[in-house]
């Protein structure tokens, strides 16, 4: 049996099958709610990156009740992939990095805003941890960006996060918009997984903040979307070039500055490289094996070739 199929059959996987959840991740949202009570008073909710739909099932059950009767409840689910219908869930097949998706969500709320946005988004994992963490962080920022368009002040945002080495940068970005940010690892999330969830409460964007899609990774046109932003919407980091024009230019190659009659003296590097990527190449060159094909048969010399003709 393959490792992945064995791993999937943990207690939450089996319970999800028995209890009718489309994925074991349903328990993650339920456990987040057990500790943070995120569904209290929520009528309008958005489920970003929703397929196959277990979080949407949880939202439908918690907000509409078992009878599914709450008429003023609206839940919009978004995913790149198509999802089988769930009663009481409005589905949008779309990309959360697109402004058009934010507009489509708002359209379903008749111009009103959501009380709760959840996002369980994950990119296709490559296995290269740095790249996976980076892409996940970009997806989280896209989710945050779209959330600023659809979440009402005081609302809650819950999102999957990878706790990689640069995660504190994400925390600071979230803290710009939410005074309360907590990282939560549900018991149903495997310990071996880098994933956790940020629970961001009491949405309060900076004064004068106007939601925009100005993240250059998203679908903005720099001139139209970004360059005209003012006040807290525009962040300008000062750029300062140090040193004056009489200093050395690091892109130039200068001749050695030797006094007349002085000879060049080689000095050892202050700290030698510990394990440089070119070490193998240096070793190959030292032993005269660099760029030489390793053939297991002798190359005929020209005399052999001539005599064979
Ligand atoms: N919460 C879901 C559930 O309980 O069934 C599981 C979500 S699954 C872990 C991650 C989802 O993120 C995938 O379905 C994927 O299509 C979606 N996704 C990834 N990037 C996306 C994007 N840019 N826009 C919309 N959905 C995206």
Query: Per DSSP, what share of the residues sits in E-state strands of 2 or more residues?
Result: 5-15%
Largest sheet: 7 strands, mixed
* Low-pLDDT runs: 216-220
The helix content is 25-40%
Q: If helices are DSSP runs of H or I spanning 4 or more residues, what is the number of helices?
A: 10
Roughly how many Å apart are the termini? 59 Å
- Specify the overall morphology: elongated
Mean pLDDT: 84
Q: How many distinct beta strands?
A: 7
Order of helices and strands: HHHEHEEHEHEHEEHHH
Ions, cofactors and other bound molecules:
S-adenosylmethionine
Q: Which structural class matches the secondary elements?
A: alpha/beta
What's the alpha carbon Rg, rounded to whole Å? Answer: 29 Å
* Order of the strands making up the biggest sheet: 3-2-1-4-5-7-6
Structure, explained:
Residues 21-203 form the Ribosomal RNA methyltransferase FtsJ domain. One of its GO terms (molecular function) is tRNA (guanosine(34)-2'-O)-methyltransferase activity. Keywords: Cytoplasm, Methyltransferase, S-adenosyl-L-methionine, Transferase, tRNA processing. With 309 residues, the protein is α/β, with parallel strands linked by helices. The protein is built from 10 helices and 7 strands. The longest helix has 22 residues, at 129-150. The chain is elongated, with a radius of gyration of 29 Å. The relative contact order is 0.09. Mean pLDDT is 84; it is low at 216-220. The structure holds S-adenosylmethionine (SAM). S-adenosylmethionine binds next to helix 4 and strand 2.
């Amino acid at each position: 049996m393959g490792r992945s199929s064995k791993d999937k059959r943990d207690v939450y996987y089996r319970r999800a099958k028995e209890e009718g959840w489309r994925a074991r991740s349903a328990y993650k949202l339920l456990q987040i709610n057990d500790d943070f009570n995120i569904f209290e008073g929520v009528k309008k909710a958005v489920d970003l990156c929703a397929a196959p739909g277990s979080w949407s099932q949880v939202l439908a059950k918690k907000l509409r009740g078992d009878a599914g009767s709450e008429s003023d409840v609206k839940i919009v689910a978004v995913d790149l992939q198509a999802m089988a219908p769930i009663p009481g869930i409005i589905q949008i097949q779309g990309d959360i990095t697109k402004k058009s998706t934010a507009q489509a969500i708002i359209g379903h709320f008749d111009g009103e805003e959501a009380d709760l946005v959840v996002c369980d988004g994950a990119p296709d994992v490559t296995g290269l941890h740095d790249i996976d963490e980076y892409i996940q962080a970009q997806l989280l920022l896209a989710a945050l960006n779209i959330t600023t368009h659809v979440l009402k002040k005081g609302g809650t945002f819950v999102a999957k996060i990878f706790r990689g080495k640069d995660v504190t940068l994400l925390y600071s970005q979230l803290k710009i918009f939410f005074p309360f940010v907590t990282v939560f690892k549900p018991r149903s999330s495997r310990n071996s997984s880098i994933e956790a969830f940020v629970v961001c409460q009491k949405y309060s964007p900076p004064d004068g903040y106007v939601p925009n899609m100005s993240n250059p990774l998203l679908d903005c046109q720099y001139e139209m979307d970004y360059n005209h932003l003012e006040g807290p919407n525009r962040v300008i980091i000062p750029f300062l070039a140090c040193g004056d024009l009489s200093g050395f230019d690091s892109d130039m190659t200068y001749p050695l500055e030797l006094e007349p009659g002085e000879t060049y003296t080689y000095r050892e590097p202050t700290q030698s490289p510990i394990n440089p990527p070119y070490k193998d190449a240096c070793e190959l060159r030292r032993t005269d094996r660099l760029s030489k094909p390793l053939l297991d048969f002798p190359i005929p010399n020209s005399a052999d070739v001539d005599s064979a003709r």
